[in-house]
Amino acid sequence: xxxxxxxxxxxxxxxxxxxxxxxxxxxxxxxxxxxxxxxxxxxxxxxxxxxxxxxxxxxxxxxxxxxxxxxxxxxxxxxxxxxxxxxxxxxxxxxxxxxxxxxxxxxxxxxxxxxxxxxxxxxxxxxxxxxxxxxxxxxxxxxxxxxxxxxxxxxxxxxxxxxxxxxxxxxxxxxxxxxxxxxxxxxxxxxxxxxxxxxxxxxxxxxxxxxxxxxxxxxxxxxxxxxxxxxxxxxxxxxxxxxxxxxxxxxxxxxxxxxxxxxxxxxxxxxxxxxxxxxxxxxxxxxxxxxxxxxxxxxxxxxxxxxxxxxxxxxxxxxxxxxxxxxxxxxxxxxxxxx
Length: 339
Ligand SMILES: NC(=O)c1ccc[n+]([C@@H]2O[C@H](COP(=O)([O-])OP(=O)(O)OC[C@H]3O[C@@H](n4cnc5c(N)ncnc54)[C@H](OP(=O)(O)O)[C@@H]3O)[C@@H](O)[C@H]2O)c1
Fold this sequence. Notes:
By secondary structure, the protein is an alpha/beta fold. The protein has 12 helices and 16 strands. The strands form 3 sheets. Strands 3, 5, 6, 7, 8, 15 and 16 form a 7-stranded mixed β-sheet that branches. It has a 6-stranded parallel β-sheet with strand order 11-10-9-12-13-14, sandwiched between helices. Helix 3 crosses helix 4 (162-173). 48% of the residues are buried. The structure holds NADP nicotinamide-adenine-dinucleotide phosphate. NADP nicotinamide-adenine-dinucleotide phosphate is lined by residues 46-48, 134, 137, 157-158, 160-164, 181-183, 186, 201, 219-220, 241-242, 284-286, 325, 328-331. NADP nicotinamide-adenine-dinucleotide phosphate binds at residues 46-48, 134, 137, 157-158, 160-164, 181-183, 186, 201, 219-220, 241-242, 284-286, 325, 328-331.
């Protein structure tokens, strides 16, 4: 099958773009007992793809190379393993594959059925492929971990990004009051997604405007993270998806003592800042979860959340799609179309 492949982390390509993925042939993925084999129609592109390609996740996600990249998929089931109960050939599905079995930048991908859900009725394949990773991230941060309740105040950094556009809609659906940040050209557009307060970060400092928030979802760097502490009230929750990782995460992934120590060290400062103000800091690394994805499907089918796809690239242009996402200016999601 044709696929976009990481041969070596970082500088693994040739010519003008040294970090380019190689477009080449890979064997069809192995189909295990509880797997569905899916013909990929569309694949969502995430910042995570570029970070994996660059080798930034080597310690957390030790992949064997060559690796087919791609963390979001929509497509059609073509074959199922003998243990599969919930899917049959012909089903239109979408998924964020398990982190150990990524590879949606390819014609075929095999996934455990527990990671997969039937695609929302109303969505095209490209729209569906834009949802799983960011949808599950927002769900796991705001609903599972923060247990967001009606009337609570939540601040979502970078409301015009992939995670932000979904998280705003999800928080509004659960009845929260939502503040977010973006740059001038996106302000009105993000308001239309439902945000109650939109701060133009080129004109105002969010930490001077927002106070007494219950939850902050951080997806930016250490500066924004440190300032986020000031936005929260005592007892509030600061959840970061862009690091630094903490001890609980080290335990979750079974990190060796050295890696666990490094993670404790990396998060020492923010944990101390948070503790001093009675705030709970935690790092979240999202996980694949077909059951949760079905809950997301229900919200999409009900019209409560809509996908936000800014650009669709043809399969051959996967490297361009990745480069576009890496610039960090995407308005919503970027998707690759295979068929
Ligand atoms: N831990 C996890 O499980 C997990 C899951 C998903 C994502 N992530 C991480 O979370 C981060 C965000 O992911 P994403 O997919 O949402 O990224 P993205 O879609 O690439 O984000 C792009 C958006 O960020 C906005 N932005 C950039 N700088 C900003 C700033 N200083 N203040 C406010 N907005 C800013 C841009 O808006 P403007 O053009 O208006 O600036 C743009 O719309 C990435 O680092 C990703 O790796 C982690």
